[in-house]
């Protein structure tokens, strides 16, 4: 699904409990052999908001939980074919509505407790489909208004019964599975939403992934150690993962992260285009390699608050009524789209290493990407004409437009301070909009504060932000469904607020049931054209996916879809 883009005690008892499962063995082979040990050091520019993957809506959380939890399936990072993960195989009924999955033998949680189909049923029935648990996964697995039925048939067999056909069903089962034995009591007591927060004891958080949380010091670092019960084996039959410690240091900004990489205290750095002329010539000198994996799957955009609701505690409207009227007017959003100079953003912010974006899907998505959408060329005259048609004029000659009622065209524009590239994009947008006569108050705030404004308080006018992406549009349904948790501009609508949002809802409902990929593409092409026309979010430019990595790792297999470290459990450090 789409997300917003961004001291351990002794474990000897656990290790002893699980050691009988995986005896490390070595086999003679030619060439360099993987070695165990070492520390892999990365950086985060924000603390996680939670340690609970079901509640996550932002990458500051999923960057952490992604090491700990897994799904029944996964995708090959090169072919994108769905392959087994926690499930070793599956079978489907002839009508495609009943799917039976068989779990791998010997699976255990990181605390040694046996993993069973009851954990799978619990994750879906008690968490995802629990109305008291706010989560984006429910948007993905609710089909034609109905939930998927999930039943544990025996300890290693689980059956899914779909209300309608669901084309990306296998891919969707990359959904993280959570432990029933650790969380059932919290669900029963209606305390799950406050479970596994950032104050949780690391030992309480158990998963099936290659690593477990060893330590979290807010504002300083997040540390992972190997899961002693991890199920994957090396080619030689030994335990995985190889790297014995992953440490994320928490830094205040990307600029600080860059400095730490250059001084040698970080092993990898996700680059901005502006960093390329600094880093690329220093590869040999500093002993690292820059990997360019093509267009990013994510996005950068500006969106305006169209939420017509009010704060239930105060009765105050989320957005001032006159501003709401401006933002709801398509002419206003079209004017903004015409005022954004994407080429300038690419040249100045991304050092030419970027791609203009007009569609909600990235070219990196491949098959489902639609290039034939409405594009708003940089045209300030067209933008001024649209604002004039709305009744905006500079009545007092101070350079700021007023609406027909004399209210100045002024609003606050937020973005996260830790991301200097996004802050620069916001600054360029502000400059472009001020040339039209808008007064834009740029506010740089901490990332988690920004996410809270967007998903909780709804107290904002406009935001420059980004979302992760994927290769199947359905997994963005939590954004594009009018009732979706991440329907940014007006979330969780009881009924669609506009005719076009209703049309997009209908498209996603039909597309997910269409098993013929060519016909599915027709549906998703239509949704991309509607979004490009209606501009609920106004896109800027895609980044090139650039990562600088020290030349000390073995088994790196960079992929345009998986990134550089998608196979983290197989990667090893050549020297201490």
Count of discrete alpha- or pi-helical segments spanning 4 or more residues:
18
CATH C-level category of the largest domain: Alpha Beta
Look at the structure and give the mean pLDDT. Answer: 91
Question: Domains counted in the coordinates: how many?
Answer: 2
Number of distinct beta strands: 23
* Class from helix and strand fractions: alpha+beta
CATH architecture of the largest domain: 3-Layer(aba) Sandwich
Strand arrangement, major sheet = 18-17-19-15-20
The main sheet comes to: 5 strands, mixed
What are the segments in which pLDDT stays under 50 over at least 5 consecutive residues? 5-30
What share of residues are in beta strands? 15-25%
Say which CATH homologous superfamily of the largest domain is assigned.
Periplasmic binding protein-like II
Named CATH topology of the largest domain? D-Maltodextrin-Binding Protein, domain 2
Measured as a percent range, the helix fraction is 25-40%
Cα-to-Cα separation, first versus last residue:
37 Å
Shape label: globular
The radius of gyration computed from the alpha-carbon positions, rounded to a whole number of angstroms, is: 24 Å
């Amino acid at each position: 699904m789409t997300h917003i883009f961004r001291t351990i005690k002794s474990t000897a008892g656990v290790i002893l409990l699980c050691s009988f499962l995986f005896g490390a063995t070595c086999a003679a082979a030619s060439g360099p052999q993987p070695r165990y040990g070492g520390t892999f050091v990365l950086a985060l520019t924000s603390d996680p908001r939670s340690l609970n993957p079901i509640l996550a809506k932002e990458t500051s959380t999923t960057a952490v939980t992604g090491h700990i939890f897994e799904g029944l399936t996964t995708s090959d990072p090169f072919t994108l074919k769905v392959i087994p993960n926690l499930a070793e195989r599956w079978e489907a009924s002839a009508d495609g509505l009943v799917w039976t999955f068989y779990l791998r033998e010997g699976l255990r949680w990181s605390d040694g407790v046996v993993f069973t189909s009851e954990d799978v049923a619990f994750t879906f029935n008690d968490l995802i489909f629990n109305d008291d648990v706010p989560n984006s996964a429910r948007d993905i697995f609710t089909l034609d208004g109905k939930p998927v039925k999930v039943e544990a048939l025996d300890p290693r067999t689980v059956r899914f019964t779909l209300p309608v056909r669901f084309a990306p069903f296998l891919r969707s089962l990359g959904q993280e599975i959570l432990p029933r034995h650790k969380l059932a009591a919290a669900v029963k007591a209606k305390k799950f939403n406050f479970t596994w927060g950032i104050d949780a004891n690391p030992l309480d958080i158990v998963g099936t992934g290659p690593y477990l949380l060893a330590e979290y010091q807010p504002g300083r670092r997040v540390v992972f150690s190997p899961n002693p019960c991890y199920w994957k084996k090396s080619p030689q039959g030994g335990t995985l993962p190889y790297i014995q410690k992953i440490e994320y240091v928490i830094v205040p900004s990307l600029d600080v992260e860059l400095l730490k990489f250059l001084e040698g205290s970080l092993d990898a750095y996700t680059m901005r285009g502006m960093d390329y002329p600094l880093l690329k010539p220093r590869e040999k000198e500093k002993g690292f390699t820059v990997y360019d994996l093509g267009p990013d799957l994510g996005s950068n955009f500006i969106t305006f608050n169209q939420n017509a609701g009010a704060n239930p505690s105060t009765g105050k409207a989320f957005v001032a009524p006159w501003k709401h009227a401006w933002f709801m007017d398509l002419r206003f959003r079209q004017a903004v789209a015409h005022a954004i100079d994407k080429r300038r953003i690419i040249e100045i912010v991304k050092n030419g290493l970027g791609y203009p974006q007009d569609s909600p899907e990235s070219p990196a998505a491949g098959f489902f990407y639609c290039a034939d959408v409405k594009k708003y060329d940089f045209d300030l005259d067209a933008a001024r004409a649209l604002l004039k048609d709305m009744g905006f004029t500079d009545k007092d000659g101070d350079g700021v437009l007023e609406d027909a009622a004399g209210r100045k065209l002024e609003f606050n524009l937020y973005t996260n301070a830790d991301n200097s590239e996004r802050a620069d994009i916001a600054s360029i947008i502000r400059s472009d909009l001020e040339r039209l006569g808008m007064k834009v108050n740029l506010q740089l705030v901490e990332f988690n504060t920004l996410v809270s404004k967007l998903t909780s308080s709804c107290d904002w006018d406009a935001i420059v932000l980004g979302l992760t992406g994927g290769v199947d549009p359905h997994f963005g349904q939590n954004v594009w469904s009018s009732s979706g948790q991440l329907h940014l501009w007006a979330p969780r609508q009881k009924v669609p607020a506009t005719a076009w949002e209703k049309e997009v809802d209908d498209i996603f409902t039909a597309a997910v049931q269409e098993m013929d990929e060519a016909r599915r593409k027709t549906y998703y092409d239509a949704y991309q054209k509607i979004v490009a026309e209606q501009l609920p979010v106004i896109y800027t430019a895609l980044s090139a996916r650039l990562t600088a990595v020290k030349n000390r790792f073995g088994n790196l297999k960079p992929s345009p879809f998986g990134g550089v470290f998608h196979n983290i459990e197989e990667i090893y450090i050549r020297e201490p």
